[in-house]
Amino acid sequence: MERGWVRPRPALDRRLDGALTHRLTCLVATTGYGKSTALAGWGPAVGAVLHRLGPADRDLPTLAGAVAAALSAKVPDLPADLVTAAAAPLGPDADELSKAAALAGALTEALVTRSRRGLVLIFDGIEAIAGAPGPVRYVETLVRAAPRHLHLVTASRAPLPFPTARLRQDHEVLDLDATDLALTPDETAAWARDLLGEAGAGIAAELHRTCGGWPAAVQAALDALARGDPATWRGTVAGLAANSATLERLTLAAFKDLPAAMRELLRAATVLPVLTPGLAATLGAPPDTLDALAARGLFLEPEPDGHRLTSTAGTVLTRNLPLDRHEAHDVAAVAARWYVAHDRPELALRAAVATAHPTLAATLLDGHGAALAERGDVLAALELLPEPARRAPPMLRLAGIAEQNRGHWTRARELLAEAAEGPGFDASVARRLAFIDHMRGDLDRALPMYERGHAHGLPPADAAMCAASMASVHWLKGDRAACAELADRALEQAMSLGDASALAMANTVLAMLAALDGDRRANDAYYLRALSYAERAGDLVQLIRIHANRASRHLDEAAYAEALAETEIAGRLSDLVAFAPFAALNVANRAKALIGLGRLEEAAAEAADAAARWEAMGSRLTGAGLNRLAAVHALRGDRTAAATLYRQVIARAEPSGEVQALSQALNGLAELLTADDPEAATEIAARALRHVDGISGVSARVAAARVALAAGEPGRARTLLDEAEPAANDRRDHAALAAVAELRARLDGDAKLADEAVRRWAAVGDPIGRARAELVRAALADPATGGEVAAGVRERMHAIGCRALDDLIDALVARAGPPRGAKLAIETMGTFRVLRGSVPVPRTAWQSRKARDLLKILVSRRGGAIGRERLVEILWPEQEDETVGLRRLNVMVSTLRAVLDPGHAWPADEFVVSEEGALRLELSGVEVDVETFLELVAQASRLEQAGRQAEALARWAAAESAYGGEFCEEDPYADWAVGLREQLRLAYVQAAARLATARAGEHRYDEAARYWLRLLERDRYDERAHLGLVRVLDLAGRRGDARRRYRLYAELMRELEVEPAPYPA
Q1: For residue 427, what pLDDT is reported?
Q2: Judging by beta carbons within 10 Å of its beta carbon (0-12, 13-18, 19+), is residue 253 exposed, middle or buried?
């Protein structure tokens, strides 16, 4: 980029070279210190990418697209969708800040994998985006998430609009200010000699003193001296001062000496986004005018697509020589015609907005509305129109589209609904309006609007997409016939048009139909066509949907690794686009795949994220996320939480007719209730079997068979399995086939079938399914062998956080022989349980919740006594009569002793001891999980202090595994539990952090990630855990996951008003 006549400044270039060893370099100085000139000269020497920020960059898509495009020229392998995604529409009520962080994160991730050479990215004029949250977050995220070889340089008149204290603490920031940018006496002399000849050197010292080395003042003064008589030079220099008034006076003087055509062109430039030679000629400027002005360095500076006023010239001319309203409108109209003729209607609209020209804005919106809704500042232009014009149906339609593209779906729906009632209605309005309702789960409102749009027929592509969307709604409702009819119609219309987006949508819904029918070959073929058409159309939203749906197909076959690969592709795209509906579907699919692989910590986080995304957009389609979250709770042994979530899904899905989520919830709840309430489980399984024609049909039969087997109905179980097996074979549902083999082994007592079940579960990579099958096989073995196998299964399951099999394991261990050691075991961390001789005490054995509470309180005292009066206060806070309260307590003590020792095999005070008006738990004959855990922590600490690290680590691992969850988590508000709960939580944090750090050091990154995730479940603001997790994910090569987790961390730190740490590369 040209520097005009200004000489190079080698000393300043050397200072700028320091940017090559810093993450961030900040040039901060007032106007005129040559920031832009210095960077324009230094940048090419180091191969920098320079982006000069202007008003247009206050729009996030414009900024992100321009930066991605500029970097693509330096790094040709950068994904093309980085540019495409910047302009993609936002999802419902999308957060621009999140999209900004995602776009920047995706760019840095791409630079990590596709460029290893040092790269400098310059943002010149940061003040242009001050107060624009999205663009500011974009730049901030680039700074914090930059890989080591990417160096950011910013130039601005004020400090950066985001905090950098932590970066400075880590010596990651190089600061350059006015003292660094000021000319030295030698540089001033060189400039004077260059422009004035040798005679100029004689006044250089005085010029330097009066201007203080301020480059703009020196430049303007030299320009004035060059136009004057050398005899007046000293007098002119003596009258200068290093202030803005002097600079303004000199600039105006230079301006007045220009030819009239040049002056008028510069005044016109004050209201135009960019000047080009062609536009300058159209405005009446002679040839080469722009080059001549740029060469002087006072008025214009080059841009990638033209020229614009320098900051100084723009300020001076706008203040002193502004265009009046009529002049501004005339300039905007002429320029708009040129911009439109050169396919830049968005620049024309920007000129109309800058000059507040309502007539021009209306003309542009009428003629180019469709393109401008995607690219231009339509909403600002609409505000210029008088109210009647703004309320006209075409403008309502345009406003609705613009609002929808910006993620403001609530407002978009209002505008589109109003447009739909007038002559502005067409299939495009119908499709957009119905799509909002569709994604929010209001299927009954979406269907008639899709139908109306399809019937309207114009535009034809939108009408075809209305048909495909109707088919999708019928698919959700489980209406195969209607889905098939509309899908065929959509494909026929799309093929006749040749529209790539319509063809992508039609083929997608046909693939979904094939999945419903279990036709794998057709499903594959349709999705491959859909992908091809979506890529051709550049339709990122459809690409996300297709990849998410392909992941669903893999999940139906228990191909969990393949499903994860598809979700990774869809996840990267959905991060870029911030389109919540399909992103939520993709995250839910990811959670299901992770469940299948036994990665419960990751699955819990993804499932909660999916549910939160649907909830945030007010959608009723929360079922997939909540079903996954319920499944995680169930596998962790928290049946109450799981049942609550399943019932929530059922309550929402039944009224809307969303059959897919409903079926999954019924199946999950039926299996969950099998042990505790077989009658309810049987009734729910029967309800699930009403939907056997859908995708969940096989799962419904398997779940019902499991329920029937538990309810003592082997014949019914066998019938259901006979129905399920051929369907599972047809669908290649490997998980269902493994479950069928497992259940047949239980039915028939067949060890070979149990072996087959173990092999099948192992083949799909499901460790929990495999463990369950191993327990079936163990039950068929001799008691000693079975008990040994069960103990091994328990160790493996607890290591991954699964406690759903504990009851089966306990039964097998108890069958192996009388327990050694404690007579009772009490578990209070996580789900509360009491075991007598390894056999869990059933809930029905407790005659009163107060008796359970009494035992928990005694456990919280850790063997210490608690007064009877205090127990009465805790258990019956409303009890005023102490005598009555003590009698009630005596009853509870008797009840508790009867539960703990129903056969009266031990003395009455063997477990619950009464002494001197107090009660305590006798720990000598009771194994309490709290005591076991704390003793393991104490042992680990002692070994660590003794330098026996390997042994200490083994104890830390045992302690971490022994921690089943929060102490008395079903009593979150009980004051008596708080102290011990916090003590246990802190001890657990200590154990998990030790293990995470150790596993990372051993390059066992997935294990380390598991521990960090467990810590984050207990404290979502734990910065050490967040950064540790990001680091190990990055080291494991899971960079997409790492970047997503880093964004989450940064958002949480901002919630606390804490500056995030940089990405831990």
Answers
A1: 95
A2: middle
Indicate the residue type of 924.
Answer: S
Looking at residue 780, its pLDDT comes to: 95
Cis omega (within 30 of 0) on the bond before 277?
A: no
Supply the DSSP symbol for 941: H
What distance in Å separates the CA atoms of residue 279 and residue 337, rounded to the nearest whole number? 10
Classify 287 as helix, strand or coil. Answer: coil
Per the rule left: phi > 0, alpha: psi between -120 and 50, beta: everything else, 270 is alpha
Give the containing element (helix H, strand E) for 5: none
Residue type, position 837, single letter:
G
CB of 539 closer than 8 Å to CB of 521? no
- Per CATH, the architecture of 10-181 is what? 3-Layer(aba) Sandwich (3.40)
Query: Amino acid letter at 900?
Result: L
CATH 1.25.40.10 correct for 929-1055? yes
Token pair belonging to 869? 């009066």
| Residues 879-895 pLDDT 10s | 878 889 899 999 999 99
CA angle 1044, 1050, 1056 (to 5 degrees): 145
The candidate with the shortest Cα–Cα distance to 395, out of 371, 411, 416, is: 416
H or E stretch at 9: none
Distances, alpha carbon 1062 to alpha carbons 141, 145, 163, 166, in Å: 9, 6, 12, 8
Question: Crossing angle of helices 678-688/697-710, nearest 10°?
Answer: 160
Which range (88-92, 218-222, 304-308, 755-759) has the least confidence? Answer: 88-92
What CATH class does 426-538 carry?
mainly alpha
Measured CA angle at 688 (ends 686, 693), to 5 deg = 115
Share of the chain above pLDDT 70, in %: 97
Q: pLDDT digit string (tens) for 80-112? A: 888 877 777 766 656 788 889 989 998 998 898
Give the bridge partners for 842, in sequence order: none
Q: How confident is the model at residue 1 (pLDDT cuts 50, 70, 90)?
A: very low
Positive or negative torsion for Cα 831, 836, 840, 844: negative
Pull the structure tokens for residue 770. 């495999």
Rg (CA), the chain: 36
Q: Are strands 926-928 and 824-827 parallel, antiparallel or unpaired?
A: parallel
Enter the tokens of residue 983: 């003590």
Q: How many CB atoms lie within 10 A of CB 956?
A: 24
Instruction: Return the structure tokens found at 19.
Output: 């940017």
Q: Supply the DSSP string of 597-657, one letter for each residue.
A: TT-HHHHHHHHHHHHHHHHHTT-S--HHHHHHHHHHHHHTT-HHHHHHHHHHHHHHHHHHT
Q: Provide the β-strand partners of residue 307.
A: 275, 302
Q: What is the pLDDT of residues 928-941, one digit of tens each?
A: 999 999 999 999 99
Burial class (CB in 10 A: 0-12, 13-18, 19+), 936: buried
Q: Do 10-181 and 426-538 agree at the fold level?
A: no
> pLDDT (tens digit, 9 = 90+) per residue, 658-684?
888 899 999 999 999 998 888 999 999
CA distance 97 to 105: 12
Q: What is the reported pLDDT for 771?
A: 98
Q: Which two tokens stand for residue 564?
A: 């994860």
* DSSP states of 380-446: HHHHHS-HHHHTSHHHHHHHHHHHHHBT-HHHHHHHHHHHHTSTT--HHHHHHHHHHHHHTT-HHHH
Please give the DSSP secondary-structure letter assigned to residue 298: S
Domain boundaries of the chain, sorted by first residue: 10-181, 185-252, 260-383, 426-538, 929-1055
Report phi then psi at 240, rounded to 5.
-85, 160
Specify whether the CB–CB gap between 834 and 899 falls below 8 A. Answer: yes
d(CA 716, CA 719): 5
Q: Look-up: residue for tokens 């001076």?
A: 316
User: How far is C-alpha 552 from the geometric centre of its chain's CA atoms?
Assistant: 20
Type of residue at 1025? A
